[in-house]
């Protein structure tokens, strides 16, 4: 079994632990009414998108998400939350350094022996969700679970759905598709982008991702026999029929969308293995991006 497969299988336990941990970190997490930005790179950026949409949708306050390198320096925020599994990513550390003494910052990380511990004002360590695989899976979903629980949006049903996502077989023939498109709405748009990233990283697969309604404005033209369109969350009315009419495969389920992402992670591993690739060691990638000075 690969590292990423072991890490996928541990997600229900990690989510349960994060949800229990959330109340003890309440002072370090955004308070109701604060104007907040959530930042990250790669997978962490997509989790930031989902977390921001959840928080603002819950009426907790204006919340934006940015790639750390694209943070708008001219804007004022009450708090900036940084997601960084490694705690060493150049863009995140540079941003936290710029904000020191200006804006309150909180970092969620997996490694307590890294520079982020001093760079942020508050740090939450999810070391039990750290990973040996370069491909990030459980840290991302565990960090998002912590933020969902802080908002009161996590339930035991989410963990039950995660276990179901691990146990159910992937749809027949899906691994053999030539192209994959992931769709989301609201907070699940970030999950769709992350699902597509996992497919590109682990399996070198032709994969795209869009807000579900935007998919109809052009991207549906690539859908045909031998392609798959996977919806994370509730689909727009009529979209499933439109995809099936192209000859493409439509995938959707009734699971919590975060559990649906876990299924998509499983697909990325399965496609990688079918293509003779090592999903733990994606081409051209490392665990952390550290830019030379």
UniProtKB/TrEMBL annotation:
<protein>
    <submittedName>
        <fullName>Sugar isomerase</fullName>
    </submittedName>
</protein>
<dbReference type="GO" id="GO:0016853">
    <property type="term" value="F:isomerase activity"/>
</dbReference>
<keyword id="KW-0677">Repeat</keyword>
<dbReference type="InterPro" id="IPR046348">
    <property type="entry name" value="SIS_dom_sf"/>
</dbReference>
<feature type="domain" description="SIS">
    <location>
        <begin position="26"/>
        <end position="168"/>
    </location>
</feature>
<dbReference type="InterPro" id="IPR001347">
    <property type="entry name" value="SIS_dom"/>
</dbReference>
<dbReference type="InterPro" id="IPR035466">
    <property type="entry name" value="GlmS/AgaS_SIS"/>
</dbReference>
<keyword id="KW-0413">Isomerase</keyword>
<dbReference type="InterPro" id="IPR035490">
    <property type="entry name" value="GlmS/FrlB_SIS"/>
</dbReference>
